[in-house]
Every structure is written in structure tokens, then in C-alpha cells.
Specification:
about 180 residues; alpha/beta; four-stranded parallel sheet; two-stranded antiparallel sheet; binds iron/sulfur cluster
């Protein structure tokens, strides 16, 4: 099966890498997408599995604060992190994680290469290496990435995860190259 033109290579990416319009107010770095990252993945013949934006789905586009852009990013991110820890948000995060797990398992079961996860550092939800906590950017994972990693580990699936930032394109491409090269 699947002996057509597909590469059978997949990478999971945070939603806003492809859709900057989903990101919290004041933090978009590009009009539409992280073009260079997207182009690099496509040129590498790697399909992009866009993960859902947990904050948009849990809190709405304005993250429940129409004045969010007036705060320093890490301060607003800390508030968002607290909101994302409400029971309803945790429940939805877990639901979203299960949807991702199902897809990942399907690809693995069919011998596709799931090369890893590209998250967004500093995000309270999608940070991989850094997140926002106590009004600072600190070492650690965002809530969605943490839940995803833990559920994957329960299934003995160990995906490489990297975090990037929209304004650090060269660093991002270097990390992605390492990810793709295993
Ligand atoms: S980092 Fe995650 S939560 Fe934040 S905008 Fe991107 S996809 Fe949404």
C-alpha cells in the first residue's frame, strides 16, 4: 500500500507556524505563515501535519483578554497559562492530544516516518525548550506539548521535539535540519 508518490514522511507543527492569524494579539511575526520554515519542509518532501491551536480552541482568538497586546508578552502568556489550567481547558487539551496520538499511530502503523514535532518556544501551550511562567520565559514545556509528550511516552512512542521562534529563522532552520536528519 501507499506505493504512490507520497514521501511517507510527516512532521507535526504548531498551528501558528502555518497560520499566524491564530496567534495571540501582538505576537504575530508574519502576515500569514513562517514561510521559510514551511518552504524548507516542503522542499525536503516532508508533509506538514498542522496541530490544533489549543489556546484558540480553549480561550478564543483574544484569549479572553482584549487588552492582551498591551502587556509584555511573558506577562500575558503567564495569564494565558493560568487560564489553560482550568478543568475545561485541560479536558480539551487532552482531547486534542488524543486526536494527535490517533493520527501519529496511524502513520506509524502504516510504516510512515513521523520525524518529530516542531513547537513554538516561549508559548505557554506549545513551547518545547522554553515556556512562559511567572512573567518570565523559562526553561520548560508548554501545557499542550507536555501533555502530548507524556501520552506518547505512555505508548512507548518517542518523537523528537524541537522548539523554534518566528523571529529566529536561521536557528529554526538549523534545528529543523537536525530533526529531519535524525
Ligand atoms: S504557539 Fe500554540 S497556542 Fe500559541 S498560537 Fe501557536 S499553536 Fe496556538
Amino acid at each position: 500500500m501507499y506505493n504512490d508518490l507520497r514521501s511517507k514522511k510527516i512532521v507535526l507543527v504548531s498551528h501558528c507556524i502555518l497560520n499566524q492569524n491564530a496567534i495571540s494579539d501582538g505576537t504575530a511575526d508574519y502576515p500569514a505563515a513562517l514561510n521559510k520554515v514551511v518552504e524548507y519542509l516542503l522542499q525536503s518532501r516532508v508533509s506538514i501535519l498542522q496541530m490544533p491551536c489549543p489556546e484558540l480552541l480553549c480561550l478564543g482568538l483574544d484569549r479572553e483578554n482584549i487588552h492582551g497586546a498591551e502587556q509584555p508578552v511573558v506577562v500575558e502568556n503567564t495569564r494565558i497559562r493560568q487560564s489553560m489550567q482550568r478543568p475545561a481547558a485541560i479536558h480539551l487539551i487532552n482531547t486534542l492530544v488524543q486526536q494527535m496520538i490517533f493520527q501519529i499511530e496511524e502513520y506509524i502503523r502504516n510504516s510512515f516516518s513521523v520525524l518529530g514535532v516542531i513547537g513554538m518556544n516561549r508559548s505557554p501551550s506549545c513551547g518545547v525548550n522554553t515556556t512562559s511562567l511567572n512573567n518570565q520565559e523559562v526553561t520548560g514545556e508548554g501545557l499542550f506539548i507536555k501533555a502530548l509528550r507524556e501520552e506518547l511516552e505512555k505508548k512507548d512512542i518517542h518523537l523528537k521535539m524541537i522548539g523554534i521562534k518566528g523571529q529566529q529563522t536561521e536557528k529554526a532552520l538549523k534545528s529543523i535540519t537536525e530533526l529531519l536528519n535524525g
